[in-house]
């Protein structure tokens, strides 16, 4: 097959699905299975670590502090690793091989985690960190290059692509979470790996559809330098490179050492020292942060007034993004534990039936729509890429089987479906003694993806209308909505006494948390990177994106630290007080963002 000229617009748009190149939907399904595996495993990790070593589904019996510390470091390293993966793709192996290597590493990582022994769990997490780093930044790069001659279609392409992201997260949490909690942790972890393998094989056997895109590293970046960009060039000097390397080393040591020192109860601690009465861990991270901020603001002073002020605005937005994710990322940790230990998840009678019907609809309808998209892709690409289509089809057959099995098991368990002993045995469903529905604790995380798919078109219309608010107001509204979401738990958990380990709060409060947090995400997450690209000179975008992802990485670790302190605050003043603190801080930052609108607007120099 001649691939020399396949990156021309005519060749890409010759074979279309829903008005877009078929290659976009290859990326859609590959990204969907990667997000399925990532979010499916993530939904289980903290619960697995903190589950009792006794019982039907024993975990490791860790205190929540240890679980949140490791989880925070893991998610922080995932974001940091994207810089490494981006570098390798740009300089050494190209986007396409970076995606393949990343998918392979993640497949192996999930397979290791299914073994459940300490060595394989830690090895699996390490493989997942590096795998995600290679995979995550390079998929979007391929999308961008596919549409470089069709910029008018790029927004629609990214909308479709991110629907794949949310579909994968939705089904990963729904199915891996269900199997992990109800059947066995290793089944949940293993299922994530199986579908990552499907994503890898589908991409590998269809990759020629992308022509020359991503085959080799780019010798020069495909950026158009603004002809009016005559600002000062500020190359990194030797001492600045040394500071960057020192900050990176100190930060990595701190992130990795933090869970190790806590889990080992101080037996393994690289930072076991004091300086001026300050603990080594605190001194190390404060030194790294101080050096980084000094270097950042020092370099900003070297640019022209306009560029410098725009970069100040980007730095402010990066701070707001950091604040958002530090709270938003309580979902897989603190909020999931709240769902497991403090929420009444037992439903009987009509409430059970209503939930089962609703759960069936939110599982079957999206799956049916995506299967229809698969059929459209199948018609366009089967002749050239038959093996890849067969692999993708097999993955969907398995998803349908698991989904139907889950629904049958739930309807039977609630007493709304009668099954003979032989049928139960053939379906591997245990006979129940009491008819009821118990909602999996991980199920609530599904609501984020569900609400995004539902609400994203409404927010998109808002941003396109004459009522479209400015950047500061969007960030401010997002932070206030984030705080109001936590306020529902402040009220819902008000009667839980300090020190209580269990409670029976209504599921209504958690549903409202996820609704408000999703609206907050739609105000902040999609628009943040957009403002980076608008405010930053093209030659500096890579550097500022690095700063942006660094802010998110730090936020993920801070989210873990906040989660570590939840138990201590809950035992002293009650879990409601913990959520009250987060509510107050988030709302205060949101109000501050709105009040600073005139200042930041001036710094942005009419960029909207």
Descriptive keywords:
single chain, 608 residues, mainly alpha, two-stranded antiparallel sheet, 20 helices, globular, peptide transport, POT_fam, transmembrane helix, transport, Peptide MFS transporter
What secondary-structure arrangement, pairings included, does this model have?
Blueprint lengths: L8 H4 L3 E2 L2 E2 H29 L13 H50 L4 H29 L7 H29 L2 H22 L31 H26 L10 E2 L2 E2 H21 L4 H24 L2 H12 L3 E2 L1 H33 L4 H28 L7 H7 L9 E2 L7 H19 L6 H22 L14 H29 L5 H24 L1 H8 L1 H21 L1 H8 L4
Antiparallel strand pairs: 1-2, 3-4, 5-6
Helix pairs in contact: 2-3, 2-4, 2-5, 2-6, 2-10, 3-4, 3-6, 3-7, 3-17, 5-6, 5-14, 6-12, 7-8, 9-15, 9-16, 9-17, 9-19, 9-20, 11-12, 14-16, 15-16, 15-19, 18-19
InterPro entries: Dipep/tripep_permease, MFS_trans_sf, MFS_Transporters, POT_fam, PTR2_symporter_CS
Pfam family, one: PTR2
Keywords: Cell membrane, Membrane, Peptide transport, Protein transport, Transmembrane, Transmembrane helix, Transport
């Amino acid at each position: 097959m001649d691939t020399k000229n396949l990156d021309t617009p005519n060749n890409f748009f010759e074979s279309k699905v829903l008005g877009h190149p078929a290659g976009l939907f290859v990326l859609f399904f590959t990204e969907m299975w990667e997000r399925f595996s990532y979010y499916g495993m993530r939904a289980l990790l903290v619960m697995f670590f903190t589950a009792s070593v006794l019982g039907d589904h024993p975990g490791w019996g860790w205190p929540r502090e240890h679980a949140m510390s490791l989880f925070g470091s893991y998610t922080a390293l995932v974001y940091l690793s994207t810089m490494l993966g981006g570098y390798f793709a740009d300089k050494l192996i190209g986007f396409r091989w970076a995606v393949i290597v990343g998918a392979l590493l993640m497949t192996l990582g999930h397979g290791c985690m299914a073994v459940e022994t300490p060595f394989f769990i830690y090895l699996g997490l390490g493989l997942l960190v590096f795998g995600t780093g290679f995979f995550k930044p390079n998929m979007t790069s391929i999308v961008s290059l596919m549409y470089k001659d069709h910029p008018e279609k790029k927004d629609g392409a990214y909308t479709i692509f991110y629907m794949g992201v949310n579909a994968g997260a939705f089904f990963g949490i729904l199915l891996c979470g269900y199997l992990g909690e109800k059947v066995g942790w290793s089944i949940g972890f293993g299922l994530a790996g199986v579908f990552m393998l499907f994503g890898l094989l589908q991409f590998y056997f269809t990759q020629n559809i992308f022509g020359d895109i991503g085959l080799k590293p780019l010798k020069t970046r495909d950026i158009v330098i603004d002809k009016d960009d005559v600002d000062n060039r500020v190359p990194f000097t030797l001492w600045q490179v040394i500071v960057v390397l020192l900050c990176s080393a100190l930060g990595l040591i701190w992130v990795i050492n933090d869970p190790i020192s806590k889990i080992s109860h101080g037996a393994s601690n690289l930072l076991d020292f004091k300086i001026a009465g300050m603990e080594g861990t605190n001194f190390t991270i404060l030194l790294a942060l101080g050096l980084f901020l000094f270097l950042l603001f020092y370099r900003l002073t070297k640019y022209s007034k306009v560029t410098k002020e725009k970069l100040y605005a980007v730095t402010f937005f990066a701070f707001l993004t950091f604040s958002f994710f530090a709270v938003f990322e309580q979902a897989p940790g603190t909020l999931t534990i709240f769902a497991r230990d403090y929420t009444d998840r037992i439903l009987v009678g009509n409430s059970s039936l209503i939930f089962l019907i609703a759960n069936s609809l939110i599982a079957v309808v999206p799956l049916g729509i995506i299967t229809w998209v698969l059929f459209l892709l199948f018609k366009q690409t089967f002749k050239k890429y038959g093996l890849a289509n067969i692999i993708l089809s097999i993955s969907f057959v398995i998803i349908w089987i698991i989904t139907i099995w889950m629904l049958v098991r739930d309807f039977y368990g609630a007493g709304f479906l009668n099954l003979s002993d032989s049928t139960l045995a053939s379906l591997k469903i245990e006979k129940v003694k009491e008819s009821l529905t118990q909602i999996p604790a991980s199920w609530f995380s599904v609501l984020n993806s569900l609400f995004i798919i539902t609400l994203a078109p409404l927010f998109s219309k808002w941003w396109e209308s004459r009522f479209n608010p400015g950047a500061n107001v969007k960030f401010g509204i997002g932070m206030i909505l984030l705080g109001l979401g936590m306020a529902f738990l402040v009220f819902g958990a008000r009667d839980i006494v300090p020190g209580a380990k269990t409670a029976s709060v209504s599921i209504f409060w958690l549903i409202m948390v996820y609704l408000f947090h999703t609206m907050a995400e739609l105000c902040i997450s999609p628009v943040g990177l957009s403002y980076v690209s608008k405010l930053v000179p093209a030659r500096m975008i890579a550097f500022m994106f690095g700063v942006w992802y660094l802010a998110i990485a730090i936020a993920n670790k801070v989210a873990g630290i906040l989660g570590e302190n939840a138990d201590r605050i809950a035992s002293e003043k009650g879990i409601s007080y913990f959520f009250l603190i987060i509510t107050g801080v988030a709302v205060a930052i949101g109000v501050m963002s709105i009040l600073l609108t005139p200042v930041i607007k001036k710094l942005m120099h009419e960029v909207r």
